[in-house]
């Protein structure tokens, strides 16, 4: 039996129950009997949220005396876990699950298998539908999908029968009246103040079961046509120019809009007896549950794009096509959304949009790329947004700190505005240094370069006055593309970047994918089974094995730099032979272009990134082959400390001012003296003012940092006497404590050098 057939069998019988004159309890009693019979299930139970607890409302197979007696909190037991996480459980042996709790009054000790789905009302779990069997077994997918469809019908039943408290369903609590603070993940840094506007008006699904299946199917077909037309129009109106990464993001978005598999799943849900709206919501719920199971951040972001399209499709089919963007922003706005697709964000008035808060989201999400280009601060993974923020609430967003103050007290609002003003003053000060060369007080010139990865990032080169691009992450083009970027597209990007840089150098790092930067079209090349992807088959290791990938990029870079100087840097070099192998690929392509009488770069400078500690032990062998060396502090530090930088429990051990990392960096610098090799640091460490002081004190004279940090670091450099700082650092490193943070802070305070 297909999922649609199983669901239709249940819905056909439920239609009569829903239309009967039975009271709500009688309907629930019949529902559990119908589901039990259709799925041949020995137990079927319904739990509903009442007064903050999940209460057993109806059951077939458990003790009837437990009805309205057995209660559990959200998060308690298997049922509570389903409601808390709003996700399905399917267990062959319920007692083996860590959340299992035994309730003796139910008489469920003889049952082994367990499956449960949340009953969702207005995006909140207001109940749970469960089935159980004596024999241990996992339930078939058709059974789970039938349960999920039935849960949608139950949602309508319990709402109409007022079996749940409306305020609980909406999440209205006392917390929604006073000042609150939300925390989340910084996605795009910045400050913003405005009033809360929800991206999507809520679509109320008032009818779940279809009266005419074919009519519902035609409604969906028409909605798909309209949605695709909208997406095509949005993509053609993007303001970021032709051929850029934003265009590739939107092309991926369009790919989902035309995906036949997605429309087929919606049609199957309609076949089960659902209305068009209910069918879309049914498939969307399944997508959300899949997203929670996806570890790969890139694939999860693609699923977010699909959900964004589902929301758009649902609004079209329901006749509620207007979003907050189409209605227009009437005042300064902080936008609230579960997730946003790139096309959705482009619809908003950039003059009024002061920030975005996402319930989900990640650093690699497509919308983050667009938001950065729009200069809109964003935080993601902000839990409890819908239970905390009401439409129109005043919000002070500090995306740099990853927090938002909701309905702030007047004194907090005044302090925020003062900070905002101070931030603008600082930015004006930093902007005034754009054309000022960063010399120390003792007259030493420090190179302050910027990191980039997108064509649009290059505008910051002129705005900040950076000395060049010390790290251009070429993999960004690979991450936002639906397919492997072709040579012509790569060449166009690299040429545009060099044109934008003018006479300033750009160091191109060859593609660094794999690990936490997975791309689906190279899934077979990336060892997904790596227990620690950061130390697995990634970066240069992957590129050398997949020879075509490296050759295409080498040819693209060489053609783009014709008549100019080219700087190429290889990532994650562990031993000299890896550098030699990578350079050989470029030499081969150079010889090919020379034979073709092509215009060649005037000069090619090859460098390596020191991220793997082993490379430091063979630098004497490698330095004679290099023009420059860049230390990638992010990966290097986690490898030195064996501390995953993404693990919050290890945050205190990931300290750039630890004597071990500073002594290591000092030894690397000293080993390069006399080699003629330009050595510098690229990564977040150099963009932090206190850490930058430490780097200057141990001999580093080239820093490549985020564009936003260029001004602050240039200002810092002008306040430093290197002889004094170097002497202090030598003394501290000779007899260090656990960290040099306290000593450096005191040293900076005594000289009125700000470092926060």
TrEMBL record:
Any one GO molecular-function label of the UniProt entry: phosphoenolpyruvate-protein phosphotransferase activity
Enzyme class label: transferase
UniProt keyword terms in alphabetical order: Cytoplasm, Kinase, Magnesium, Metal-binding, Phosphotransferase system, Pyruvate, Sugar transport, Transferase, Transport
GO BP term (any one): phosphoenolpyruvate-dependent sugar phosphotransferase system
UniProt main location, coarse: cytoplasm
Cofactor (UniProt): Mg(2+)
Record localization: Cytoplasm
Domain GAF per the UniProt entry, residue ranges: 23-168
This enzyme's EC code(s): 2.7.3.9
Catalyzed reactions: L-histidyl-[protein] + phosphoenolpyruvate = N(pros)-phospho-L-histidyl-[protein] + pyruvate
UniProt cross-references to Gene3D superfamilies, sorted A to Z: 3.30.450.40, Phosphoenolpyruvate-binding domains (3.20.20.60), Phosphohistidine domain (3.50.30.10), PtsI, HPr-binding domain (1.10.274.10)
Family: Belongs to the PEP-utilizing enzyme family.
Protein name in the entry: phosphoenolpyruvate--protein phosphotransferase
């Amino acid at each position: 039996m297909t999922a649609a057939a199983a669901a239709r069998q249940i819905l056909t019988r439920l239609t009569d129950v829903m239309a009967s004159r039975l009271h709500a309890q009688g309907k629930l009693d019949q529902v559990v009997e119908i589901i039990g019979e259709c799925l041949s299930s020995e137990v079927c139970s319904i739990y509903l949220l009442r007064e903050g607890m999940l209460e057993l409302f109806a059951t077939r197979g458990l003790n009837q005396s437990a009805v309205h007696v057995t209660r559990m909190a959200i998060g308690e037991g298997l049922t509570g876990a389903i409601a808390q996480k709003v996700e399905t459980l399917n267990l062959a042996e319920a007692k083996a699950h860590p959340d299992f709790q035994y309730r003796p009054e139910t008489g469920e000790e003889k049952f082994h298998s367990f499956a449960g789905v949340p009953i969702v009302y207005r995006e909140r779990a207001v109940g749970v539908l469960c089935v159980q069997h004596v024999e241990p077994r996992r339930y078939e997918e058709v059974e789970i999908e039938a349960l999920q469809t039935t849960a949608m019908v139950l949602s309508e039943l319990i709402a109409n029968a007022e079996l749940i408290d409306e305020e609980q369903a909406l999440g209205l609590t006392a917390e929604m009246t006073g000042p609150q603070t939300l925390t989340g993940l910084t996605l795009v840094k910045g400050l913003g103040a405005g009033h809360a506007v929800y991206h999507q008006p809520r679509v109320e699904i008032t009818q779940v079961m279809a009266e005419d299946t074919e009519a519902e199917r035609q409604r969906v077909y028409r909605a798909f046509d309209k949605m695709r037309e909208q997406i095509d129009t949005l993509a053609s109106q993007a303001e970021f120019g032709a051929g850029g990464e934003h265009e590739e993001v939107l092309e991926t978005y369009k790919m989902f809009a035309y995906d036949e598999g997605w429309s087929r799943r919606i049609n199957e849900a309609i076949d089960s007896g659902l209305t068009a709206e209910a069918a879309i919501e049914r498939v969307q719920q399944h997508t959300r549950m899949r997203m929670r199971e996806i570890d790969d951040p890139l694939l999860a972001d693609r699923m977010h794009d699909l959900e964004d399209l589902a929301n758009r499709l649902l609004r079209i089919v329901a006749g509620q096509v207007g979003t907050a963007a189409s209605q227009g922003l009437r005042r300064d706005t902080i936008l609230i959304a579960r997730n946003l697709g790139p096309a959705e964000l482009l619809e908003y008035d950039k003059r009024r949009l002061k920030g975005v808060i996402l319930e989900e989201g990640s650093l690699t999400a497509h919308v983050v790329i667009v938001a950065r280009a729009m200069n809109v601060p964003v935080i993601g993974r902000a839990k409890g947004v819908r239970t905390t923020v009401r439409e129109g609430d005043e919000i002070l967003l500090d995306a740099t700190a990853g927090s938002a103050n909701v309905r702030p007290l007047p004194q907090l609002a005044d302090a925020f505005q003062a900070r905002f003003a101070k931030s603008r003053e600082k930015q004006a000060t930093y902007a005034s240094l754009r054309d000022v060369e960063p010399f120390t007080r003792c007259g030493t010139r420090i190179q302050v370069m910027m990191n980039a990865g997108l064509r649009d990032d290059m505008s910051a080169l002129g705005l900040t006055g950076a000395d060049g691009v010390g790290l251009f992450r070429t993999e960004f083009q690979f991450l936002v593309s639906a397919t492997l970027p072709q040579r012509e597209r790569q060449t166009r990007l690299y040429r545009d970047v060099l044109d934008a840089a003018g006479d300033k150098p750009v160091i191109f790092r060859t593609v660094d994918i794999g690990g936490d930067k997975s791309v689906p079209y190279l899934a077979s090349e990336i060892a997904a089974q790596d227990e620690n992807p950061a130390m697995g088959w990634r970066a240069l290791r992957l590129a050398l094995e997949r020879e075509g990938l490296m050759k295409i990029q080498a040819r693209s870079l060489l053609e783009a730099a014709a008549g100019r100087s080219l700087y190429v840097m290889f990532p994650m070099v562990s031993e000299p032979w890896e550098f030699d192998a990578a350079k050989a690929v470029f030499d081969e392509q150079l010889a090919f272009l020379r034979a073709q009488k092509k215009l060649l770069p005037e000069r090619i400078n090859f460098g390596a990134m020191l991220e793997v500690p082993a490379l430091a032990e063979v630098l004497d062998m490698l330095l004679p082959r290099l023009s420059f060396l860049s230390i990638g502090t992010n990966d290097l530090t986690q490898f030195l400390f064996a501390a995953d930088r993404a693990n919050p429990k290890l945050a205190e051990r990931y300290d750039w001012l630890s004597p071990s990392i500073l002594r290591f960096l000092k030894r690397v610098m000293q080993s390069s003296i006399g080699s003629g090799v330009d050595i510098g640091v690229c990564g977040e460490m150099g963009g932090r003012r206190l850490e930058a002081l430490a780097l200057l004190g141990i001999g580093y004279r080239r820093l490549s940092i985020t564009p936003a940090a260029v001004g602050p670091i240039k200002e810092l450099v002008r306040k430093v006497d290197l002889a004094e700082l170097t002497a202090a650092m030598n003394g501290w490193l000779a007899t260090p404590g656990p960290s040099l943070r306290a000593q450096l802070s005191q040293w900076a305070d005594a000289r009125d050098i700000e470092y926060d």
